[in-house]
Amino acid sequence: MSTPNRPFLVELDRLTFGYGERVILRDVSFGVPRGKVTALMGVSGGGKTTVLRLIGGQIRAQQGQVRFDGQDVTTMDQRALYAARRRMGMLFQFGALFTDISVFDNVAFPLREHTDLPEDMVRDIVLMKLDAVGLRGARDLKPSEISGGMSRRVALARAIALDPDLIMYDEPFAGLDPISLGTAARLIRRLNDSLGITSVIVSHDITETFEIADHVVVLANGAVAAQGTPAELRASTDPLIHQFVHALSDGPVPFHYPAPSVAQDFDRRPS
Amino acid sequence: MKALNWLAALGASTREVLADWGYGARLFVKLLSMTGAALRRFGLVRDQVHFLGNYSLAIITVSGLFVGFVLGLQGYYTLQRYGSAEALGLLVALSLVRELGPVVAALLFAGRAGASLTAEIGLMRAGEQLTALEMMAVDPVQRILAPRFVGGVIALPLLTAVFSAVGILGGYAVGVLLIGVDAGSFWSQMQSGVDVWKDVGNGMIKSVVFGIAVTFIALLQGYVAQPTPEGVASATTRSVVVSSLSVLGLDFILTTMMFSI
Amino acid sequence: MQRSKNDVWVGLFVLLGALAVLFLALKSANLLQMSFSKDYEVTAKFDNIGGLKTGAAVKSAGVVVGRVKRIAFDGESFQAQVTLALQAEHEFPKDSSLSILTSGLLGEQYVGIMAGADEKNLAAGDRIGSTQSAVVLENLISQFLYSKAADPGKTESSKP
């Protein structure tokens, strides 16, 4: 599975991507270390979800390469891309479960589509995956009958159904209550370690993410602002990183949207 | 200067429209090429025929019955002025089999099944289910769209046949049972006047063409819908409007080719 | 399915295909009048054109050589003025005659042109003098009945 001379499972090499005139990522290069939990952080619209889409081959970069286990995703044809995607799992922000089938069938879906395993084996695997996320008892419920946090866990079970090498989490902590938050974070860490997979998390939540991440990449203004372990980033003196990590409202990222001066807007004295 | 801007905007929107048509055409060809694979997973197709066909039976049957009633009434009213009331069976049958059956059934199908298809696919798009499928290395065109396409193309001709048959019975009920037209001439005139290949066959060809058009348009609108509530809503209405107009336009073209002077 | 740069061209191709199908459909139903040969126009006056319509054929020896372009009413002579568009490759002598005939027994009416003997041919804008009006069925029947009533014994042929 992992070759000793390839420490990174995913590598972004001088990547440039934008929509028309708007450039989202400019000459971005970094690597996702194998077997570790990497967090992608940054301000909204900074390109974090775009990076996930680029890794999965959903969008193609204008310049540069995105390498998954040494192969460039940007030049793959559909067959090669689908083969690569079978080694990836993706967890969408709201789960993206198939609403017309049960929890069990949702998790069984990738197994039934990509393998010829007999139904009793499929059943065993599905129940094991559901057990890993603590929802083995919810197997017959429909997605409309479970809470948001639970449907994200089911989506996680579905994402690990084929034992992928890489799992990408798009805002896994958004909108969860404190208990679910803690559960989700611990699940991600435990799965990463017990299954020996590589995880990439896109998140805004400093507290939970820093707790479980081995490596953090901060994106700002279309480039990598900082990389390192959570401890390194916490100790950073860079003003942008400092503002970000300590959640300060003002700093290099301004609080005020560009506006005329206060005197101009509020001064009512006759001129 | 303003005229130039207006011209540039016109050119840009023409380009957009052509690009949309081109994308739609490519998707259509892709769906056609996947028909074989979809048929091999017949369970999916069978489920879709059930959702699209069985669930439309109620509206199709009731509408067919009422259309048959009206044809019987109007037909008798006009024919008896020329002393040709015995040709009522022929009139009802030909009107239904050649035109009203295929067209009205297709319009009803567009409103009931087409709208539900667009809404379903649009909501799958909005809920990122289609993207999730792609990320799981499953082609949504093959897994979701193709079975629904084949299901719709199978369902509509069957519904059309039911519509025409029920309509003829409705015309019989009004003409023979209520008004008193001779039952024997009702059926015998129909038998001698309706040609299986030219009338029934052409009507069936029409319904297959309409099935392809309505189902494809419904799937396309759902697939390219904006992933927002407004996007899905406008895609659904657009699907019904565009497929209804297409049915009427195609009917004109097909009729000129099949029943020319 | 991804968007492609070629989508605009495919769309154009689809548009052309749709127009072609529409054209074929209209042509096959004879709803579209289009001729690519040059026509020259001549006029003629008729007492009664019967059921003649614009677009009706002009035939000579049963072959279509032109079309009826326009029908108007001449308020001075109280006759119908018909403009014919004859195909350029068919030339007729100046003293040709026209008559309004019916295809079949009760079919649609057309103009029959019978060639004369003049050396000079019809040119654009000429007027054909010799015309024969359409046969009106009611007049025919009333003439027949009238002649029958007048001479019950003899069989007299009525005027055509």
Instruction: Tell me the Rg of chain C in angstroms.
Output: 23 Å
User: What is the CA-atom radius of gyration of chain A, in angstroms?
Assistant: 21 Å
Sequence stretches where pLDDT stays below 50 over 5 or more residues of chain A = none
Largest interface: B-C, 22 and 22 residues
**String of helices and strands of chain A:** EEEHEEHEHHHEHEHEEHHH
Q: For the report, how would you describe the main beta sheet of chain C?
A: 8 strands, mixed
How is this structure best summarized?
The complex is a heterotrimer of chains A (271), B (261) and C (160). With 271 residues, chain A is of the alpha/beta class. Chain A contains ten helices and ten strands.
Description of the structure:
The complex is a heterotrimer of chains A (271), B (261) and C (160). Chain A is α/β, with parallel strands linked by helices and 271 residues long. Chain A is built from 10 helices and 10 strands. Chain A has helices at 48-55, 78-85, 103-114, 119-132, 148-159, 178-195, 206-212, 230-234, 239-245, 262-266, and strands at 8-19, 22-33, 37-42, 63-68, 71-72, 88-91, 166-170, 198-202, 215-220, 223-228. In chain A, the strands form 2 sheets. Chain A has a 6-stranded mixed β-sheet, sandwiched between helices. A 4-stranded antiparallel β-sheet of chain A has the order 2-1-4-5, covered by helices on one side. In chain A, 37% of the residues are buried. Chain B has 261 residues and is mainly alpha-helical. Chain B contains 10 helices and no strands. Chain C is α/β, with parallel strands linked by helices and 160 residues long. Chain C has helices at residues 7-28, 137-150, and strands at residues 39-46, 57-60, 63-74, 79-87, 97-102, 109-114, 127-128, 131-132. The longest helix of chain C is centred in the N-terminal third of the chain and has 22 residues, at 7-28. Chain C starts with 6 loop residues before the first helix and ends in a 10-residue tail after the last helix. Chain B binds chain C through residues 15, 17-27, 30, 141, 223, 252-254, 256-257, 260-261, and chain C through 1, 3-4, 6-15, 21-22, 24-26, 28-31.
Detail the topology: elements first, then pairings.
The complex is a heterotrimer of chains A (271), B (261) and C (160).
Chain A: E1 8-19, E2 22-33, E3 37-42, H1 48-55, E4 63-68, E5 71-72, H2 78-85, E6 88-91, H3 103-114, H4 119-132, H5 148-159, E7 166-170, H6 178-195, E8 198-202, H7 206-212, E9 215-220, E10 223-228, H8 230-234, H9 239-245, H10 262-266
Parallel strand pairs in A: 3-8, 3-9, 6-7, 7-8
Antiparallel strand pairs in A: 1-2, 1-4, 4-5, 9-10
Helix pairs in contact in A: 3-4, 3-5, 4-5, 6-7
Chain B: H1 2-33, H2 35-40, H3 42-52, H4 57-79, H5 88-126, H6 129-135, H7 140-179, H8 183-193, H9 196-223, H10 229-258
Helix pairs in contact in B: 1-7, 3-7, 4-5, 4-7, 5-7, 5-8, 5-9, 5-10, 7-9, 9-10
Chain C: H1 7-28, E1 39-46, E2 57-60, E3 63-74, E4 79-87, E5 97-102, E6 109-114, E7 127-128, E8 131-132, H2 137-150
Parallel strand pairs in C: 1-7, 2-6, 5-8
Antiparallel strand pairs in C: 1-4, 2-3, 3-4, 5-6
